[in-house]
Amino acid sequence: MSSSPKKFLILQKLRLKIEIAKRLIRIMLDLKIITTSKYISLQTDLQEISKMATGWQKYLINKEP
After folding, report:
1. Which pTM does this prediction carry?
2. I want to staple 33 with a disulfide (CB 3.0 to 4.6 A). Which of 1, 15, 28, 65 is the partner?
3. Collapsing DSSP states into helix, strand and coil, what is residue 27?
4. Can you give the pLDDT at residue 2?
5. pLDDT of 3-53, one tens digit each?
């Protein structure tokens, strides 16, 4: 297996785990386990990570011959 498909699969798994983390953090907010300010901070970080992973995936797709 070449490096690009392997990286693509890793990034897919990463994006799935980010989405799961977003949902769990939302549940934590709903259950009042975390504060609204902490929720916003965590969601902002996760959104940035998600954008980066999406960008890396798009780069790998466009890089293919």
Report:
1. 0.82
2. 28
3. helix
4. 58
5. 788 999 999 999 999 999 999 999 999 999 999 999 999 999 999 999 999
Place of tokens 């790998």: 60
H-assigned helices in 1-65? 3-30, 36-63
Rounded Cα–Cα distance for residues 19 and 9 (Å): 16
Nearest to 41 by CA among 25, 27, 54: 25
Rounded alpha-carbon distances, angstroms, from residue 42 to 5, 24, 27: 30, 11, 13
Q: Which residue bears the tokens 């609204």?
A: 36
* Location of structure tokens 């297996």: 1
Copy the structure tokens of residue 21. 């983390």
Determine the angle formed by the axes of helices 3-30 and 36-63, rounding to 10 degrees: 160
